[in-house]
Automatic annotation (TrEMBL):
Assigned protein family: Belongs to the WD repeat SEC13 family.
Main subcellular location of this protein, as a coarse class: nucleus
GO cellular component terms attached to this protein's record: nuclear pore outer ring; Seh1-associated complex
InterPro entries cross-referenced by the UniProt entry: Sec13/Seh1_fam, WD40/YVTN_repeat-like_dom_sf, WD40_repeat_dom_sf, WD40_rpt
Pfam families recorded: WD40
Protein name: Nuclear pore protein
GO biological process, one term: mRNA transport
GO molecular function ontology, one term from the record: structural molecule activity
SMART domains in UniProt: WD40
WD repeat start and end residues: 66-99
Key words of the record: mRNA transport, Nuclear pore complex, Nucleus, Protein transport, Repeat, Translocation, Transport, WD repeat
Compartments where located: Nucleus, Nuclear pore complex
Organism encoding this protein: Cladonia borealis
Length: 405
């Protein structure tokens, strides 16, 4: 659902979502589409992974099913890698696994997908959430354990992804003893680079931006290299805590950082136990007055007469003139580059702009953005999928919902 565009989502909401028999012997705990929306991977409490491929427009064909972990599988995600199709899983057996299709084996053989990397957490506590981020041909992984240990990894071999090294580890909320239900969740900002206001404030293009939640708290981290003013890809990333925000009392079950560049600031959605979805806006004010900046400072383009009079009295259209946004970014580039060395000190501000609640409130467990960040899907204990978007007036509204029946 998070990989379809706005027009397709509207059509799906109108006609209802397609259902198919997944054949799992126990509850399906997570599902994930690949980047093209032609393949879906399911994981379930019966320890098995199932991958389906679309056949035509209205049917899904099982490609393979196999035992992926020695316990229930908690989450599954396709990686946004440009090198091929990979997906990862975490299970209650304290394992993180990365899978790749092996075309030398037949479909439905139970061996079509091969585990190319497996890791257990260093503190022997199960992983509860993970995410991935691709910057051009570089892929990064972040994962957090049940007691709150956050790790950032990069591949030793960027092409095969068969071995990974740990870049940094932190406890973003301090150490939580085993048995404490803090509901740790994380979400990468998936756009190619930071939003425009963050760039203007001094956050580098290769910065890894990550939101981490626990209880009713969300923290924003930027993983920066020691010298962000350099364009070199050498040097390890380090986590810096940038901002801290809270719901009032609602416990957070999941978070999702909006992708795309539709807005000059960042938007984060939180699925909450009180039956609501909270929408937060996070900005990086860069104006001299330090105000909460909601718009890009745009430089005015030069007047047409400055480009020279038309020849022969004929009318003309100015070409290659920089747009307002382009001129504004170009005019700020030198000042921005000078500040990147202090990127970890960039000021962040946030505010809760919406509390979304359906007519039948029930705990919300999942939130997913459409690939361009234009709409948000949520689902929970009421068994329905709700679709939300921001109206032209700035108000968040529900524009569709569906249920299994």
């Amino acid at each position: 659902m998070d990989e379809i565009d706005s027009a397709e989502s509207l059509e799906s909401a109108k006609n209802g979502f397609q259902s198919f028999e997944h054949a799992a012997a126990d509850i399906v705990l997570a599902a994930s589409f690949n980047s093209s929306g032609t393949r879906i991977a399911l994981c379930s409490a019966d320890h098995k992974i199932r991958v389906y491929d679309i056949d035509g427009e209205d049917s899904w064909i099982l490609t393979d099913a196999w035992r992926g972990h020695d316990a229930e599988i908690l989450d599954i995600q396709w990686l946004p890698s440009l090198l091929g199709q990979f997906f990862a899983t975490i299970g209650s057996d304290s394992k993180f696994k990365l899978w790749r299709e092996d075309h030398s084996h037949l479909s439905k053989s139970g061996r079509r997908f091969r585990c190319i990397f497996s890791q257990s957490p260093p503190n022997h506590v199960s992983y509860v959430s993970f995410g991935s981020k691709a910057i051009k041909h570089d892929t990064y992984l972040a994962m957090i354990t049940h007691d709150g240990l956050l790790s950032l990894l990069e591949p030793v071999d960027a092409e095969s992804l068969t071995s990974w090294s740990q870049i940094d580890t932190i406890n973003p909320f301090g150490h939580h003893p085993r048995g404490t239900e803090a509901r740790f969740r994380l979400s990468f900002q998936q756009s190619e680079g930071p939003c425009s206001n963050a760039l203007l404030a001094g956050i580098g293009l290769r910065t890894l931006s990550l939101a981490v939640s626990a209880m009713n708290n969300i923290k924003i981290f930027r993983a920066l290299k020691p010298d962000e003013s350099s364009s070199s890809s050498e040097g390890n990333y380090q986590f810096y805590e940038m901002h801290d925000m809270h719901t009032d009392t609602a416990l957070i079950n999941e978070i999702a950082w909006a992708p795309g560049c539709l807005r000059p600031f960042d938007v984060i959605a939180a699925a909450c136990d009180d039956g609501t979805v909270r929408i937060f806006e996070v900005d990086t004010p860069h104006e001299s007055d330090g105000s909460f900046s909601m718009r890009i400072p745009v430089a005015k383009p030069p007047p047409l007469q400055a480009l020279g009079p038309p020849k022969g009295g004929a009318s003309f259209t100015a070409r290659n003139a920089p747009s307002g946004i382009g001129a504004g970014l170009a005019g700020m580039s030198r000042d921005t580059a000078a500040r990147r060395g202090m990127a970890h000190e960039v000021k962040h501000e946030s505010r809760q702009v919406a509390v979304l609640a359906p007519d039948e409130p029930a705990p919300v467990w999942k939130v997913r953005w459409l690939h361009d960040g234009s709409a948000l899907a949520s689902t929970g204990d009421n068994g329905k999928v709700h679709l939300w978007r921001e109206s032209l007036s700035g108000e968040w509204i529900e524009f569709a919902e569906t249920e299994p029946a």
